[in-house]
Design goal:
Length: 152
Amino acid sequence: MAVWRLTTHHIDQDRLLKWSFDHSKIALGWSEVGDLRKFENANEISLRAHVAYPDNRNWSVSGRQLWGFCHELKTGDLVILSSRGRRAAVFEVTGEYVFDSNAQDDNYYGHQRSARPVGVDANELWKQAGGTATGQAIYWSLIKCSVDPRAR
């Protein structure tokens, strides 16, 4: 099991937070990249993101985040949702990765996983998890934390 931090949408941050509670899901954008299961590695995803979003300067790091969301995030992992610079909620992942191609027209959160909110203090979990793991960058939308405090 692992602990992750997911920053909500960069334009209307509370929108994804509300969406997560309303739909019992967590999600990432970059929907025009398509279904992540068709890629062999994170680099392929980044290259596709560059084609899909040529004006976005973050395309080069999108692959690692999307790869992690699809292939490394596991059922049972805890995800701290951050909104407007604060750790707002904790969700437990309850399902496998799915790609919702209809999300492109609706909310741009095509990369989804079922998840349920849990009664864990987000700030305390972040503190116990030791912050950002080696090789992760705090400014990424999705990062893995250093440790899972449940494993201690």
